[in-house]
């Protein structure tokens, strides 16, 4: 075996990354951690979680402060660092949306725009998950089709949840991390307050819990 082959055997383990960087003065250590965190987030195709970022920084590194410093440096840039789907991700600022659409057209839009019916069903799933298709149909006063559910599943906005205790044990539906990411949410707790939707006339908690039609939805869908 040649010397080069001996240096690059398939079973060789990569050298351990120095995360503590004790040999650096505090300011340079902090800058290195910032660079590592931003590089990992930049290279990822989906939001990066705290546990992943913790692999490249020291044990005493405050990731929140690192993120804050990165955000401050990006203040004048056309993209920003946002908290979505339980992690962090680089995203273009909304102010540049028209610019990007002009440059790439519809090809630059990854997700198909939802119809009104699809968006309303998705909203109900988000607020009342886990929920069955039958329960959704009773809320709307007409059947929510398998095709509509299929569209939401196809875009990975919803997934199957636990079986319902109802007769026949039908599947329930829940939202996904893709849902959080697409709508810029870190957790479901960031959904608009239900009271705000009631004030806007979009939903009625009383009617929903009674199995009736959500306020304002029948007219919108009719």
Features:
222 residues, alpha+beta, Arc Repressor Mutant, subunit A, 2 domains, 44% helix, elongated
Mind sketching the topology for me?
Layout: H1 3-7, H2 26-43, H3 50-53, H4 63-73, E1 79-84, E2 87-92, H5 97-104, H6 116-128, E3 131-132, H7 133-140, H8 146-154, E4 158-163, E5 171-175, H9 177-182, H10 194-199, H11 205-209, H12 217-221
Detailed description of the structure:
With about 220 residues, this protein is of the alpha+beta class. The chain folds into two domains: about 5-95, Orthogonal Bundle (Arc Repressor Mutant, subunit A); about 115-220, Winged helix-like DNA-binding domain superfamily/Winged helix DNA-binding domain (Arc Repressor Mutant, subunit A), CATH 1.10.10. The protein is built from twelve helices and five strands. The chain has helices spanning about 5, 25-45, 50-55, 65-75, 95-105, 115-130, 135-140, 145-155, 175-180, 195-200, 205-210, 215-220, and strands at about 80-85, 85-90, 130, 160-165, 170-175. It has a three-stranded antiparallel β-sheet with strand order 3-5-4. A two-stranded antiparallel ribbon has the order 1-2. Helix 2 (about 25-45) packs across helix 4 (about 65-75) and helix 6 crosses helix 8. It is elongated, with a radius of gyration of 23 Å. The model is unreliable at about 1-10 and about 210-220 (pLDDT under 50).
